[in-house]
Amino acid sequence: ALTEKVKLAQPGPFDETITDTVCTFCGAGCSLQLRTVGEEYIRTTAEAGKGLNSGNLCENGRFKNGFISSPDRLKTPLVRKDGKLVPCTMAEAVSAIKAGVSSDLAVYISGRTTNEDAKVLASIAAKRGDKTSSFGINPAAESFYTVCADKLLTSYDDIKNADLFVALNCDVFGNPFVIMTAIRRAVRAGAKYLMASEVSAEVKEAIANAKKPVVVLGSVFNPEILPYVAMLEAKVLIPAAKANSRGVAKYLNFEKYGLVSAESLIIWGEDPVGYGKGKDVISAAKFKVVCDLFLTETAKLADVVLPIGSFAENGGTFTNVFGVTQSLKPAFEGISNAAVLAELSKVLGTAEPSQYAPKALIERSAAVINGADVIELL
Question: Taking phi first (over 0 means left), then psi (-120 to 50 degrees means alpha), and beta for anything else, what does residue 243 get?
């Protein structure tokens, strides 16, 4: 049988501590178990039949949490001096942030940030211009979640009970994630399956003849298709690429499609430069603070870098793609994100954060609707 190779300094047996928590990769909200010895991550498992995922984990959730105890993780803050990032104390880093961050601040929040931490970050932004965004959250998808909440799947039971799946510009059978596995299982049990690139006459007819149809979109899609999807008499599944995209999104002012420019930036848990995004926004800022687990390509461009903790070290809640909010439980004490945010709040100030909701501009009886309207934000 295949099993993980555990990296330990010496042979066991070891007394593992098991912590039930939630996966932080995609938005499925899978329950998992972190197994640790002291403050050392050992492996990830899942209990059969437990959680929304019934104990099933994809490759990411099962085998890709080794970053938790990576020796490459940041341990001390960094500040730029004479053009180079050098180690410093938290007090020195906070002092540099206080001096460098202007009243024109944009805060970028990762979709893997807890609801609680996202609210604090949004409250810091609210004090200095109220600009919030994300490099990794799809604004069109998040807007659809709000505008067409009645269209969304709410559980795995909706997948199990469906009699038709229409995959629009996505490959259900080539996707390893747990939600797609559930769809494949339903298809093998007898549900019909149709792949299409647009909402065609064939798609409309198939949906009209089904009792419980589901339309499945990929994590990347043309947002102009959403109004036509909304007019279909079917449930809709738009997989979230990040574990808490739905929870974080309500604090984000996407300004339609655009990324937010500002004199100062705080980037929390995102590495857009490493993925070829946002370098123009980052380069244009006069002062940049990056908060991350690693010295990423984005962090290398920062004026101040603050180390933050992984999901194994912090509590809070995530809201998954079905709209279910679940608790994240720390496996051991490490870097406290609450403590980092407390320091930022102290020097930058806070105000009541704005919560953004898309304009409900979709009229399902309309023949043609401008796709851009779907993501227009208040």
Answer: alpha
